[in-house]
Each structure stands twice: as structure tokens, then as C-alpha cells.
Amino acid sequence: MKKLLLLAACLLAACKPADPSNASGKPKVALVMKSLANEFFQTMAEGAKKHQAAHAADYDLVVNGIKNETDLAEQVGLVEQMVAQGVQAIVIAPADSKALVTVLKRAKDAGVLVINIDNKLDADTLKQAGLAVPFVGPDNRAGAKAVGEVLAKKLKAGDEVAIIEGVTTAFNAQQRKAGFEDAMNAAGIKIVSSQSGQWEMEKANGVAAGILAANPNVKALLCANDNMALGAAAAVQAAGKAGQIQIVGFDNIAALKPLLADGRVLATADQHGDQLAVFGIEAALKALKDKASPTDQQTPVDVVTK
């Protein structure tokens, strides 16, 4: 009987999940991003990896993301995997401002610290879930307004423009659209269309082509990220309107720089993607060390032109 009890104890010990913090003596942080096909999130991932390499004695890092911007089920699954792996903190750029709240509530109930970056979680949905999650990121509305103001100086009151939005359920997409609207309305410029390109180049290309065909007097396309600005620029070129239509974006990805240099794109906003995850990671590490609840933190966003 004694041998059986000992055997049972050994089996239970073997089945118990390993605690990564006990194994290495340092916290394990998970970075969960949106589409890794988007250069912005590739840059974010590289910035996080460089930070961890420079602070290897302080924490371990798991980096992952989803295949496309709208694969919510995959991102929910990633959060669940990170909780199962026993991470101490999750730094997440949610693909949807509402749909990820439930799984993040489960993560927090399991003792995992959650930090929200890039796309802010919906305040009402958080409140309904009884969940408090700090947001570490830029003021997207202010950034988009600043980009829009650069464009407004190239136009005149009464000119027609169109907006190519991100995923409409994403808070940062909503805020960037609002910022563009703020700048256009203040300048008396007419917004004749606002459609979603779902953050993706190919989809934005089709949306832009449709807008140009339906609105021959459009003077500018305001794109809520640079991926979509690239798609819009290709549509303008294909329509034979290069040099006639201004384009602005948001993110300052490397692929956009040649278009800024030669004038195909007028301006974009740099929210310092290589540091955005780092800001969130540092907030998580400080909270874990201090055993304190982190607070919201606004990060910089700057206008970039030629």
C-alpha cells in the first residue's frame, strides 16, 4: 500500500505543469500580435526580441501572432495557449476591441497579468466583464488628425476626399477614422466615401479602385495604415492618376519610404512600431516586480513626410 501511495505521488508530480518562472527564476512574457504578414507587426516582433536579448537575465519572451488581421479565433487560441504554458504576463495587440475581452478575462482570472498595446480594448466591454486592463500605446486620433492636417494644406475647401478604414470593430481603426474626419471637417473638405480595407494591401487596392471609379473628382485617399496606403497607391497608378491624387497613411513602415521619397504618398504617422511592444513589456515587468497594478501609458506618435 505504501508503495502504491508513493507511486501515485510520483505520477501526480510528473503530471503537474512546469512553472517556467520557477524553472528559470525569471518571468515569462508572451507577446500576442495581429497579422505577422503586416510589416508593422514584424517590426514590432523584432523590437521585442532585441529588447529581450539585451535583458536576457531579466525575463523570457514568447512571440507569436495570427495569419491575418481578422482571424479572431486563432488569436483567442494563442491567448489560451499562453495561459496553458504558464506565462506570467501577456502583452497583446488585439485583433478586435471586444471579441478578445472574454479570453483575456479568463487569463487574468488564472493569475496572468494582461497589458493591452496597439489597439485599445473597448471600455464598455471591459466594464461589463469586470476587467481592468491598462492600455500602453499612442493617441491614434491625434496622430491621424496631425497627418490629415498635413494633407489639408495641399487641398482647398470643398475638395473631395475618401477614407480607407481599418477593421471597423477595432478601436484604433475607429480613432484613426475620427482623426482624419477631424482634420477634413476643420478644413471644409468633403469626405465622399469611407470604406474598410481591413488593414490589408490587396483589399485596400480593390476598395481604392472602386472609390476612384465612383468618385472621379476625389483629390485624396486617407488610409488608416501604410499597408492600405500601398494598395491605394497602386490603384491610383493603375487608374492613370499618379500625381493627381494625394495619399496619406499611418505606421511609417519601411515599404512606404520609397513612396514618401518620390511623392506617391504625402505623409504617414510613426507610432514607433519597433518600440511599441517594448513599452508594453517594460510596463509588465515593472508591475510584476513591484507587485502593483499598472496604469495606462501614452506613447509617442509623430508625423513623417518626405
How would you describe what is shown here?
The chain has a six-stranded parallel β-sheet, with helices on both faces. Helix 3 (39-54) crosses helix 12 (273-290). Helix 8 (171-187) links the parallel strand 6 (160-165) and strand 7. The protein has 306 residues and is α/β, with parallel strands linked by helices. The relative contact order is 0.14. It is built from twelve helices and twelve strands. It has two domains: 24-138 and 273-299, Rossmann fold; 140-270, Response regulator (Rossmann fold). The chain has helices at 2-15, 20-24, 39-54, 72-84, 101-109, 123-129, 140-152, 171-187, 201-214, 226-238, 257-261, 273-290; strands spanning 28-35, 60-66, 89-92, 113-117, 135-137, 160-165, 190-196, 218-223, 246-248, 267-270, 297-298, 302-305. The radius of gyration is 22 Å and the shape is elongated. 47% of the residues lie in helices and 19% in strands.
DSSP strand (E) fraction?
15-25%
Number of helices: 12
Oligomer: single chain
Gross CATH architecture of the largest domain: 3-Layer(aba) Sandwich
**Secondary-structure class:** alpha/beta
Residue share in helix: 40-55%
Radius of gyration: 22 Å
